[in-house]
Design goal:
Radius of gyration: 14 Å
Order of helices and strands: EEEHEHEHH
Number of domains: 1
Helix content: 40-55%
Function: Could be a nuclease involved in processing of the 5'-end of pre-16S rRNA.
Pfam families: RuvX
Subcellular location: Cytoplasm
CATH superfamily: YqgF/RNase H-like domain
Organism: Rippkaea orientalis (strain PCC 8801 / RF-1)
GO biological process, one term: rRNA 5'-end processing
Structural class: alpha/beta
């Protein structure tokens, strides 16, 4: 079986949720939430996860508008992603992330792990959903 090493990213203005997968590519797991301070800091933290997980690809949630168009936030995500892809020298695949934060919050509530204070948990869970969708689409 081919080994898969991908990082799933939920990129927001304030935070980046990060998820990874097991080598079989079956299960995505939330890893961390990066508090965004500067591009350089974002890259350094992502680079550490890329090295640690031996990531071969970045799977990024793209926040399409409900009508399917690319709005302002989606274009910002693409711009940031192009930059990190270039610096980290990794390919990128996008996943439609509409409503993943809503789904993430619902999952955390059902698991009794939801806190209005921990926005990072939602971002991390959203990254997990994004990566899991991508993994499932490859089967």
């Amino acid at each position: 079986m081919e080994r898969i090493s991908a990082l799933g990213l939920d990129i927001g203005k304030k935070r980046i949720g990060v998820a990874g997968c097991d080598g079989t590519g079956l299960i995505a797991t939330g890893l961390t939430t990066i508090e965004r301070t500067s591009f350089q800091s974002d890259v350094e933290q992502l680079h550490q996860w890329v090295k640690e997980r031996e990531a071969q690809i970045l799977v990024v949630g793209l926040p399409y508008s409900m009508d399917g168009s690319l709005g302002f936030q989606a274009k910002q995500v693409q711009k940031f992603t192009r930059r990190i892809s270039h610096v980290l020298q990794l390919p990128v695949e996008y996943v439609d992330e509409r409503l993943t934060s809503v789904e993430a919050e619902a999952q955390l509530k059902s698991q009794k792990r939801f806190s209005t204070w921990d926005k990072g948990a939602i971002d991390r869970q959203a990254a997990t959903i994004i990566l899991q969708q991508w993994l499932d689409s490859r089967r």
